[in-house]
Amino acid sequence: MTDIVDKVPAPSLPPEQIKAIPVRHYGRWVSGVVVIAIVALIGIAFSNAKINYSVIPDYVFDPGIVAGAWTTLYISVLAMVLGVALGVVLAVMRLSSNPVTSTVAWFYIWFFRGTPVLVQLLLWYNIALVFPVLNLGFYKDEMNQVMTPVLTALLGLGLNEAAYMSEIVRAGIQSVDEGQTEASHALGMTQGQTLRRVVLPQAMRVIIPPTGNEFINMLKTSSLAYAVQLPELIKKATDISSASLAVVEMYFVACIWYLFLTTIFSIVQYYIERRYARGSTRNLPPTPFQRLKKNLRMFGSFRRPEVAR
Question: Can you tell me the distance from the alpha carbon of 259 to that of 247, in angstroms, rounded to the nearest whole number?
Fold first, then answer.
């Protein structure tokens, strides 16, 4: 009888209620308070500064400022086109098995990456001191007439950008597996056809992101053309500030235009990168609107979650 009682299973007890204690992120609150305090101090400092903020909206769409912004965009696009075109040529030369072309490309990259852009602009601006007359045989004129501020800025910015673009293109070309080149050669393609039809299309995924960054940087670097008397945004803002005595206010106007231009092209760059990423990833990166929704949800997560029951 005792053995039978021992074999009877005991009644199962209900599982004990789980008490989940949420993790408290005190560091988030502390860092948030510190950042808000710093931002508030900066805001108070600028609110008490001797800046006439009321005149800033009056000059944002001033004809001179708008013309300067257009010149900035115009020279940036031209210099970037020159830099990309020459950069591709230099990258191919650098990867060539010909020691002469490879050495020339290396020397070009070494020189233009190793000297400041401002110095290069000033050298082109004063090149008439070295070559007073430009004589090409079929064309002859004084160098002062040929080397205008626009051409000076184009050469100074574009040739410098070509050195950086050549390294970007070279990295993109080398990112493509060598088997792709061997397969194209096995199909009877020439070296040029392989580069145009096989290598460069696949390398674009690596080339596009840094190229977009370079163009956005070019929009800001073009302000150095102020030193060669190009009527770009900074030059126009400085000229207006000399007449209106609103020096700091005009620099704020220039900042507004630079932020506007860089924001527009940052969005364009993002969608171009998204397009070229379709063949390399299954999950495309979120769009800016999706990021905004995610950030709003993360902001709501700062609240203490309810205890699970």
Answer: 19
